[in-house]
Amino acid sequence: MKAVIFDLDGVITDTAEYHFLAWKHIADQIHIPFDRSFNESLKGISREKSLETILVHGGAAAKYSKAEKQALMFQKNQHYQTLISKLTPKDLLPGISRLLCELKNENIKIALASSSRNAPKILERLEIIDDFHAVVDPTALAKGKPEPDIFLTAALLLGVSPAECAAIEDAEAGIAAIKSAGMFAVGVGHERSMHAADLMVGQTCDLSLDLLNEKWKQHSF
Ligand code: BG6
Ligand code: MG
Fold it and tell me: Which residue among 83, 151, 191, 206 is least packed, with the fewest CB closer than 10 Å?
């Protein structure tokens, strides 16, 4: 294992909850039912795709013009940015700071593969941006998760092959993207959405370099 590639929202910090709150506010406003179970299907996917999914779910796919959709996305992002403006290093999920230290001590490369355009700002607020050797720009990709592009780009930027990478995700679309990139997939969260992962942990505090190495060896040989 030469590199570990991280998803951000729901893996490094709990901003998955902020995305939920900001979309819920929009959905309530346009009278579309929105609960946590439906929100699972939005995890890992782009802002545009998320809005489309919400509108289809509410039977309102054709109801809004392009400009109205832009306005809804802008409003969602404004709300989301207000929520993330309060982030501090204390908002790192348990075990993440320790895992980053363990990786750095072993000279394992670290990259970020987040679909979020807000990712660099969040890494800065969490004061971990300097730990990352590469941060993929999601706007430069042809296809988002569950396609493998974002993870393949991370490997390319790090100068390692996909088979030398492990990647950590909390979303079904993310695990599918990792597997289709030919990498070792680590899922954080509930078993149901993580079934395709090579290693599953319930929470981020269960992650460690020792555990990754142990499962990596069993997987490879
Ligand atoms: C992903 C989140 O990381 O980023 C999605 O899991 C979100 O919920 C996507 O929609 C895009 O984020 P942003 O910040 O660019 O709207
Ligand atoms: Mg995520």
Answer: 191
Domain of residue 61, residue span: 16-84
42-75 pLDDT, tens digit per residue, is 999 999 999 999 999 999 999 999 999 999 999 9
The pLDDT tens digits of the residues spanning 71-81 come to 999 999 999 99
Residue 147: CATH number of its domain: 3.40.50.1000
Report which of 87, 157, 158 is spatially closest to residue 124, judged by C-alpha positions. 87
Q: Which residues of the chain have pLDDT under 70?
A: 220-221
pTM: 0.95
Which are the contacts of 168, defined by CB distance < 8 A and separation ≥ 6? Answer: 4, 5, 6, 7, 11, 186, 187, 188, 207
Regarding the beta carbon of 47 and ligand 1, being less than 6 Å apart is answered yes
DSSP annotation of 42: G
* 15 touches ligand 1 (CB under 6 Å): no
User: Which is it for the CA torsion 110, 144, 140, 189, positive or negative?
Assistant: negative
CB of 180 sitting under 6 A from ligand 1: no
CA dist 199 and 217 (Å) reads 12
Last residue of a domain, one of 43, 66, 84: 84
Q: Based on the domain organization, do 77 and 134 belong to the same domain? A: no
Binding site residue list for substrate: 7-9, 23, 42-47, 50, 76, 114-118, 145
- Regarding whether 207 and 122 lie in a shared domain, the answer is yes
Say if residue 79 is in the same domain as residue 117: no
